[in-house]
Design goal:
CATH superfamily: Spore Coat Polysaccharide Biosynthesis Protein SpsA, Chain A
Structural class: alpha/beta
Number of domains: 1
Shape: globular
CATH topology: Spore Coat Polysaccharide Biosynthesis Protein SpsA, Chain A
Mean pLDDT: 91
CATH architecture: Alpha-Beta Complex
Low-confidence stretches: none
Distance between the termini: 24 Å
Number of strands: 14
Helix content: 25-40%
Order of helices and strands: EHHEEHEHEHEEHEHHEEHEEHHEEH
Largest sheet: 5 strands, mixed
């Protein structure tokens, strides 16, 4: 069964994006969104389009027809952009909104979108990453649950600093391709080994993930985190996640220093909503 609905996690506080970086000058529009912590709305490229336009266009290119944007209560700017009276009126992909009242983690954000998903399987992705269209297209055609396993070296080659990858989760994958577990921060060296595989928070889920998101214990930050919910689903609920290897870059827009490089890489990407 192919998947046509995606959930974009665009509610985060953007703490790192808010940090002023004298070595990364931004124009007035970019600085305003960075200061507000709205990473997905930072304009990139000569067109001045926000990063979220590229994400939605990429989803449409990959075959998705509906996108649920998980946003904060104060993110009226996002609603206004894609609303019926806004400057952008998507025709290739239907945009819906789910409000996460408080920033209580990525698993909590998925729960905020549950009422709009109707029990169907769905893809979840970050609102500050631009993923390869072909990877998203491949993922949505798989049986849920599943995820791509990104090669660390390809992520570094694509512009994500190695030290940043040290904060990402690594995947423990069995010989048959099934996910055995997820390791948080096992050390930078492990991530850069040729066989190491990284989670970039791109997932294909079925309804069982909602139970895991509710049951998973709070993290040390008093949040419910999606990698922990996946581990809970595997260990406690008996879920089997399929994986497939990916040696391709992912664009990451989490800091002000990322804006120029991301804008350059998206310079030739055509946006069609």
């Amino acid at each position: 069964m192919s998947t046509t609905r995606a959930v974009v996690l665009a509610r985060g506080l953007g703490t790192r994006m808010r940090e002023v970086d004298p070595s990364a000058p931004l124009d007035a529009a970019q600085a305003a969104m960075a200061q507000a912590g709205m990473k997905s709305m930072v304009p990139v490229g000569a067109s001045g389009r926000p990063f979220l336009d590229y994400i939605l266009s990429g989803l449409a290119d990959a075959g998705f027809t509906e996108a649920v944007l998980v946003i904060a209560p104060e993110h009226a700017l996002v609603r206004e952009r894609y609303g019926s009276m806004g400057p952008v009126r998507p025709t290739r992909i239907r945009v819906m909104y789910a409000v996460q009242q408080k920033p209580l983690g990525t698993a909590d954000a998925v729960l905020a979108a549950e009422p709009l998903l109707g029990g169907q399987q769905f893809v979840v992705l970050n609102g500050d990453n631009y993923y390869p269209v072909d990877v998203m297209a491949q993922l949505r055609l798989l049986p849920a649950p599943a995820l791509p396993a990104f090669q660390a070296a390809a992520l570094v080659a694509g512009g994500i600093p190695a030290e940043r990858i040290a904060s990402y989760a690594t995947l423990d994958i069995a010989e048959d391709g099934h996910l055995r577990g997820i390791s948080e921060k096992p050390g930078e060296g492990a991530r850069l080994q040729p066989r190491a595989r990284i989670s970039m928070n791109l997932w294909l889920f079925d309804r069982e993930i909602f139970r895991a998101c509710r049951e998973v214990p709070l993290s040390r930050r008093n949040e419910r985190e999606l990698p922990e919910a996946v581990r809970w689903a595997i260990d406690r609920l008996g879920s089997t996640f399929h994986t497939f290897p990916v040696a391709a870059p992912v664009l990451d827009l989490s800091r002000r220093a990322d804006v120029a490089a991301v804008a350059e890489r998206l310079g030739k990407v055509e946006v069609s909503l």
